[in-house]
């Protein structure tokens, strides 16, 4: 499946010098950070759109997963990323407006 391929490709590109198998089974360290990074790579490479089309905006994550033939966890991750991206852009916009106002008052 493409989902598995993109996940493993994420490991290959993002974690070239890291042996998660060795870390997981021979140390007490956790690999969850690397797994999450590979999952994020997977979500970005998947067929999921960067913006949910208007006609699907009331679909549940399960329905979107079925529509795009991807695991529901991937949809959840993509939606979370989109919300976080919106949050960061909003914060930057508010900050830039405050900075502009401050400079105008100087």
3D structure, described in words:
With 106 residues, the protein is mostly helical. The protein contains 5 helices and no strands. The longest helix is centred in the last third of the chain and has 34 residues, at 72-105. The mean pLDDT is 79.
Which helices and strands occur, and which strands form pairs?
Blueprint: H1 2-14, H2 20-26, H3 32-45, H4 61-68, H5 72-105
Helix pairs in contact: 1-3, 3-5, 4-5
Query: Shape, please?
Result: flat
Helical run tally: 5
Q: Would you count the extended β strands for me? A: 0
Strand count, sense and barrel status of the largest sheet are: none
What's the gist of this structure?
The chain has helices spanning 2-14, 20-26, 32-45, 61-68, 72-105. It is mainly alpha-helical.
Could you name the key traits of this structure?
5 helices; 72% helix; 106 residues; mainly alpha
């Amino acid at each position: 499946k493409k989902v598995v391929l993109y996940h493993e490709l994420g490991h290959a590109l993002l974690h070239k010098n890291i042996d998660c198998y060795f870390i997981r089974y021979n140390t007490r360290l956790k690999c969850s950070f690397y797994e999450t990074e590979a999952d994020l790579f997977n979500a970005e490479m998947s067929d999921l759109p960067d913006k949910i089309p208007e006609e699907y905006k009331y679909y549940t994550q399960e329905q979107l997963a079925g529509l795009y033939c991807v695991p529901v966890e991937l949809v959840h991750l993509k939606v979370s990323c989109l919300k976080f991206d919106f949050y960061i852009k909003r914060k930057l916009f508010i900050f830039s407006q405050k900075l502009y106002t401050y400079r105008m008052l100087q």
